[in-house]
Amino acid sequence: MEVLQLIVSGLANGCVYGLIALGFVLIYKATEQVNFAQGDMMMLGAFIALGLGNDAYLGIPFGLACVGAVLAMAAVGWSIERAVLRRLLGQPQIAVMILTIALGFLLRFVAGAIWGHDPLTFENPVAGTNVRLGALVVGLDEVTVIAVTVLLTVALFAFFGRTRLGIAMQASSQNQLAAYYMGIPVKRIHGLTWALAGATAAVAGILLASKGSIDPSTGFLGIKAFAAAVIGGFGSLPGALAGGLIVGLIEPFASRYVAAGYAQIVPYAVMLVVLVIRPHGILAQVHAKKV
Length: 291
Fold this sequence. Notes:
- By secondary structure, the protein is mainly α.
- The protein has one domain.
- It is 71% helix and 4% strand.
- It has 12 helices and 4 strands; from the N terminus they run ααααβββααααβαααα.
- It has helices spanning 2-31, 38-53, 62-83, 93-115, 140-162, 164-174, 176-181, 186-211, 221-232, 237-257, 260-263, 266-277, and strands spanning 120-121, 130-133, 136-139, 213-214.
- The strands form 2 sheets. Strands 1-4 form a two-stranded antiparallel ribbon. A two-stranded antiparallel sheet has the order 2-3.
- Strand 2 and strand 3 (136-139) form a beta hairpin.
- The radius of gyration is 19 Å and the shape is globular.
């Protein structure tokens, strides 16, 4: 029974990591840029939902607070691409990396200036409620995290596979020049991709905040999500989710059965092993470029 409890907890955490990793992959596939501020966008989305929904702030209904946070982070993602990243087109990748790292520091400063640095709890209807499945008792917040992640995953796959915009995003990610010649507005697609990554980060932040307290340093979870994206395959959307689940499942078992001083490094050790055995990740999608 203890093993089942650890599995459920690991799946819930893994879903959050997977959603953050999904943001990494979305941006990388569309623009070949790595957004090291993705974890901090997740943190900011959680704080926006908290600021909208908690009684100590605006106190609007929970559902509206979540929708407002998702829309706000979509706008933030689009604005970052439009105002900052678009100006770096043609510049070395290291410039984009440094800029997004600096952006992460800026987002943490903004969150700390507005909401402070003490841990805060997002008031939500699922907190503190348990669900009994036979002898297994799990939190409703963990069940909600898993269910929302499954629904969002299905919606994203339907979006990329069934809609014209989703297909245009895929075309742009595979060959930007060919997509441009086919009449696809590549720059606009890039902006929409950043908006989608921001919205996904907000969902991850809301789910994380529903399970416990948050503070500006919560954005450092993006490091684990980056490891998850590498494990699953940095160019693969299914790989991002799979990598998140792997990291999420490793954590509780490592904390339970490995010495406390080493448990935190186990996910990164797994990442190193995967890089040695399968450098492109477990579910890598490698495309050869013709020149």
